[in-house]
Amino acid sequence: MKKYDLFTIIKPNLDNDEADKVVSKTEEIVKSLGGETIGCDKMGRKKLAYEVAGFNDGFMVNQVISVPSDKIVELKRQLKLNDSIIRMMFTTKEA
Prior knowledge:
- This protein is α+β, with helices and mostly antiparallel strands.
- Helix content is 28%, strand content 49%.
Protein backbone atom coordinates (compact mmCIF):
# COMPACT_ATOMS: atom_id res chain seq x y z
CA MET A 1 0.00 0.00 0.00
CA LYS A 2 1.16 3.50 -0.80
CA LYS A 3 1.25 6.29 1.75
CA TYR A 4 -0.59 9.53 1.03
CA ASP A 5 -0.92 12.93 2.64
CA LEU A 6 -4.58 13.90 2.88
CA PHE A 7 -5.04 17.60 3.59
CA THR A 8 -8.60 18.73 4.33
CA ILE A 9 -10.23 22.03 5.22
CA ILE A 10 -13.37 21.67 7.33
CA LYS A 11 -16.12 24.31 7.55
CA PRO A 12 -15.38 26.91 10.23
CA ASN A 13 -18.99 27.16 11.40
CA LEU A 14 -18.61 23.78 13.18
CA ASP A 15 -17.40 23.66 16.76
CA ASN A 16 -14.28 21.69 17.76
CA ASP A 17 -16.22 18.53 18.67
CA GLU A 18 -18.03 18.46 15.34
CA ALA A 19 -14.73 19.01 13.48
CA ASP A 20 -13.23 16.07 15.42
CA LYS A 21 -16.21 13.94 14.35
CA VAL A 22 -15.48 14.79 10.70
CA VAL A 23 -11.86 13.69 11.19
CA SER A 24 -13.03 10.46 12.89
CA LYS A 25 -15.45 9.82 10.03
CA THR A 26 -12.59 10.23 7.54
CA GLU A 27 -10.52 7.71 9.52
CA GLU A 28 -13.47 5.26 9.48
CA ILE A 29 -13.79 5.61 5.70
CA VAL A 30 -10.08 4.89 5.26
CA LYS A 31 -10.36 1.83 7.51
CA SER A 32 -13.45 0.54 5.68
CA LEU A 33 -11.51 0.65 2.41
CA GLY A 34 -8.75 -1.54 3.83
CA GLY A 35 -6.37 1.25 4.75
CA GLU A 36 -5.07 2.80 7.93
CA THR A 37 -4.39 6.24 9.34
CA ILE A 38 -0.73 6.55 10.27
CA GLY A 39 -0.74 10.08 11.62
CA CYS A 40 -3.09 13.02 12.10
CA ASP A 41 -2.11 16.66 12.58
CA LYS A 42 -5.06 18.86 13.56
CA MET A 43 -3.76 22.35 12.88
CA GLY A 44 -6.86 24.09 14.18
CA ARG A 45 -8.78 27.00 12.73
CA LYS A 46 -6.73 29.07 10.30
CA LYS A 47 -7.35 32.05 8.02
CA LEU A 48 -7.42 31.15 4.32
CA ALA A 49 -5.45 33.07 1.70
CA TYR A 50 -8.61 33.41 -0.38
CA GLU A 51 -12.29 32.62 -0.05
CA VAL A 52 -13.20 28.94 -0.45
CA ALA A 53 -16.87 27.96 -0.76
CA GLY A 54 -17.86 31.26 0.83
CA PHE A 55 -15.58 30.88 3.88
CA ASN A 56 -12.53 32.96 4.82
CA ASP A 57 -11.19 30.47 7.39
CA GLY A 58 -11.48 26.78 8.25
CA PHE A 59 -10.26 23.90 10.40
CA MET A 60 -7.17 22.42 8.76
CA VAL A 61 -6.23 18.76 9.14
CA ASN A 62 -3.32 16.86 7.61
CA GLN A 63 -3.51 13.06 7.78
CA VAL A 64 -0.94 10.50 6.66
CA ILE A 65 -2.85 7.47 5.38
CA SER A 66 -2.02 4.17 3.76
CA VAL A 67 -4.65 2.95 1.29
CA PRO A 68 -4.62 0.41 -1.56
CA SER A 69 -4.11 2.27 -4.85
CA ASP A 70 -7.32 0.90 -6.35
CA LYS A 71 -9.39 2.40 -3.50
CA ILE A 72 -8.27 6.04 -3.90
CA VAL A 73 -11.06 6.92 -6.35
CA GLU A 74 -13.69 5.58 -3.93
CA LEU A 75 -12.08 7.44 -1.01
CA LYS A 76 -12.16 10.73 -2.93
CA ARG A 77 -15.79 10.12 -3.90
CA GLN A 78 -16.84 9.51 -0.29
CA LEU A 79 -14.98 12.59 0.96
CA LYS A 80 -16.63 14.78 -1.69
CA LEU A 81 -20.03 13.63 -0.39
CA ASN A 82 -19.22 15.03 3.06
CA ASP A 83 -20.69 18.55 3.17
CA SER A 84 -18.47 19.55 6.10
CA ILE A 85 -15.29 19.30 4.00
CA ILE A 86 -14.87 22.38 1.82
CA ARG A 87 -11.51 21.46 0.25
CA MET A 88 -9.24 18.40 0.13
CA MET A 89 -5.93 17.54 -1.45
CA PHE A 90 -4.16 14.22 -1.91
CA THR A 91 -0.40 13.91 -2.42
CA THR A 92 1.74 10.79 -2.61
CA LYS A 93 4.09 10.47 0.35
CA GLU A 94 7.66 9.74 -0.66
CA ALA A 95 9.28 6.65 0.88
